[in-house]
Specification:
Blueprint: E1 13-18, E2 25-28, E3 35-37, H1 43-52, E4 58-62, H2 70-78, H3 104-109, H4 116-127, E5 131-135, H5 144-151, E6 155-159, H6 168-178, H7 183-204, E7 209-211, H8 218-223, E8 228-233, H9 239-253, E9 259-262, H10 264-267, H11 275-291, E10 295-298, H12 320-340, H13 346-352, H14 364-383, E11 394-398, H15 418-423, H16 431-443, E12 467-470, H17 478-484, E13 487-490, H18 498-509, E14 513-517, E15 541-542, H19 543-546, E16 548-561, E17 575-588, E18 594-599, E19 605-612, E20 615-620
Parallel strand pairs: 1-4, 1-10, 4-5, 5-6, 6-7, 7-8, 8-9, 9-10, 11-12, 11-13, 13-14, 14-20
Antiparallel strand pairs: 2-3, 15-16, 16-17, 16-18, 18-19, 19-20
């Protein structure tokens, strides 16, 4: 049983990011993200703004300083002013206080205070009735226990963010050791890294550990010990799809809560001048609220403008000479210039300053973000938040060792292993991953509600709320599945096992309904689409679960249709094709097997319905994954 979290009286945590940054600070020098920072509020001032501007009850403190200024480090991390040391704001007239190195001796002398700023922030936040969550943070060990001591219920824990991915070095190492790249070996290495970090943070006293990213391997991060999935929405596509994934993990692992990290400012893509952009943000907050999220964090946008992925971002009003210069010299070189010759950069700052009113707290964009957050928070305060989670009776299955991305792209490689995929194209996203495309089109259709712009995020739910459950490392039970879901549908890649096969049998026998296909009952873990029959679980004998024995790979077929006299799924002469994929050769072992679809040439069974115990299995008799039928 997982530790529980005490929800506030409103029943939900609503908040936004708080960043360590100073005005007149060089923020970034990438061509796409260049800018000077225009934010002048310190962290305590932002706490006051949260209260004054009705921005919810939560502050998410970032442990990554925005820009080079040493004041970022002192105020946020060391709280040196508490011991009488004041580090002034950047002084461009006299070229002082511009880079951390100017005060490195001071930081070194007081390195034991690294983390004191978090404790102070949590204390001050609690005084104002504001909860605190930390992301990307580190601390000297002496301060870590004080986070919970000072914050009590007002301290929610630590988020490791976008920290973990499958590594190319891991893949190369596995290839060298094993002679072939196996998904299970990649999973074990990923889990090992996550567990080591989570265990360390728990032992140090950081409290609950959260995970925020748009990765679709969040299930492995939860399996590795992360207790709160907080998906990076809008970067992760369909918000309802992300909710289904988070909610399924919440139920499956008995987690304290699941949340949403709204990266709307960056990944809305829509123009600031278009009303749909703001409709999208508003709808996103309500969709998460209705889906059962108990933590909604607006990543950015309400304190200063950060995005450049909208065609009319106000950052583009800043003269492009800055962008050109910084893009040429690069981040590292800019840092050196800041240290050795800041006068060379001052003209760019002076050129940018007149535009700060379009980028800072008082800008139209930031005011609009605060208005929408405030309206949502008023709604929550007036209406409360429903307890628990919405009812779901269907779950999409994310199979064992499914390491695809959250949005299908044939240029993506499994686990991000692009170099591996160039050598072995089966590691590119392909037929297995297109199964998720079908599932999303059915259960989370993205209708053109943003026209003329493309809708990437706001879906419908024509079958109601649907969960996504994970069979990662087969860490799931039939008891759990039968308790929560009338039907489960396998969608993408799955590496089956004898244990998993037993779980599926028990689930169906006890009354569940299962949809699955031949390759999803394969034990293959090398991304071999030309798998052999001897790789099928239980020797290909699926008599109990599916009512058939799979004998081997069959011929390609082109059209599918209804069998003569059986029109339960659709009526003849409706045909589906050209499919151009292989069927499996099977022996029917259930004399009462219902054949629901056949190939249009010699009537081989393509979709069959088998009764087992109290339940049902719908079996797709295809040698290819369901994605082949997109």
């Amino acid at each position: 049983m997982a530790r529980k979290i005490k929800l506030p009286k409103e029943g939900i945590f609503v908040g936004s990011g708080v960043y360590p940054t100073d005005t007149d600070t060089l923020l970034c020098t990438m061509i796409g993200h260049y800018t000077w920072q225009a934010q002048s509020f310190g962290p305590i001032e932002i706490l006051d703004k949260i209260v004054e501007d009705n921005q919810g009850n939560l502050a998410q403190v970032w442990g990554i300083a925005r820009g080079f200024s040493p004041k970022n480090r002192s105020e946020w991390f060391y709280a040196l002013d508490e011991i009488g040391i004041d580090i002034p704001a950047p002084d461009w007239e006299n070229y002082k206080n511009l880079v951390v190195e100017e005060y490195q001796t001071v930081f070194d002398e007081h390195k034991d205070r690294f983390g004191a700023g978090y404790v102070r922030f949590i204390r001050e936040a609690r005084k104002r009735g504001i909860y605190t969550a930390l992301i990307y943070t580190n601390s000297n060990p002496q301060w870590i226990p004080q986070l919970s001591e000072v914050g009590g219920d007002y301290y929610l824990g630590y988020d490791f963010g976008e920290r973990y991915n499958i590594g190319l070095d891991d893949a190369r190492s596995i290839l060298k050791e094993m002679g072939t790249l196996k998904l299970g070996a990649l999973a074990d290495r990923l889990l090992k890294r996550v567990r080591e970090h989570v265990n360390e943070r728990h032992q140090q006293g950081w409290g609950f550990v959260m995970a925020t990213s748009s990765n679709f391997h969040l299930d492995y991060e939860v399996l590795g010990g992360a207790e709160m999935p907080v998906v990076e929405d809008f970067a992760f596509p369909s918000l309802n799809f992300a909710s289904a994934f988070s909610r399924g993990l919440y139920r499956q692992h008995d987690l304290p809560l699941w949340g949403s990290h709204l990266a709307h400012e960056h990944y809305s893509w829509l123009p600031n001048s278009n009303s749909h952009r703001w409709d999208q943000l508003r709808a996103g907050m309500y969709l998460k609220y209705m889906a059962g999220s108990k933590m909604i964090i607006n990543e950015s946008g309400n304190w200063f403008v950060e995005h450049t992925l909208a065609p009319d971002s106000p950052k583009f009003e800043v003269p492009q000479t800055t962008r050109k210069a910084f893009g040429v010299i690069g981040w590292g070189a800019a840092h050196e210039i800041m240290k050795t010759n800041p006068a060379a950069l001052k003209p760019y700052l002076e050129e940018a300053r007149p535009y700060f009113g379009m980028l800072n707290y008082d800008s139209p964009v930031c005011r609009k973000y605060r208005e929408i957050i405030s309206d949502f928070w008023d709604f929550v305060k007036a209406n409360g938040t429903p307890e628990g989670q919405p009812e779901t009776t269907i779950a999409l299955v994310k199979g064992n060792y499914d390491f695809c991305s959250s949005r299908y792209n044939h240029n993506y490689a499994i686990g991000g292993l692009g170099d591996i995929a160039e050598e072995n194209p089966s590691w590119y996203e392909d037929t297995p991953e297109r199964g998720w495309v079908i599932a999303n089109e059915v259960f989370f259709p993205l209708k053109p509600v943003m026209a003329p712009y493309k809708n990437l995020s706001i879906s419908g739910t024509p079958f109601g709320q649907v969960d996504v459950v994970s069979f990662a490392k087969d860490h799931i039970t039939a008891e759990f599945l039968n308790k929560h879901y009338k039907a489960i549908l396998f969608t993408g890649w799955n590496t089956c096992s004898e244990k998993q096969y037993g779980i599926l049998k028990e689930y169906v026998y006890n009354g569940g309904t299962l949809f699955i296909s031949t390759p999803q009952l394969s034990t293959n873990e090398t991304r071999n689409f030309a798998y052999n029959a001897d790789e099928l679980v239980n020797g290909g004998d699926f008599s109990e679960l599916c009512g058939v024995k799979v004998l081997g790979k069959g011929d390609r077929f082109y059209w599918a249709t209804a069998p003569i006299g059986e029109e339960k799924l659709f009526k003849f002469p409706r045909r589906f094709g050209i499919i151009a994929s292989r069927i499996a050769n099977v022996e029917i072992t259930d004399p009462e097997l219902e054949v629901l679809a056949i190939d249009d040439e010699i009537e081989r069974p393509l979709i069959v319905h088998h009764r087992y115990g109290k339940g049902h299995t719908y079996f797709l008799n295809s040698w290819a994954y369901p994605g082949a039928f997109e």
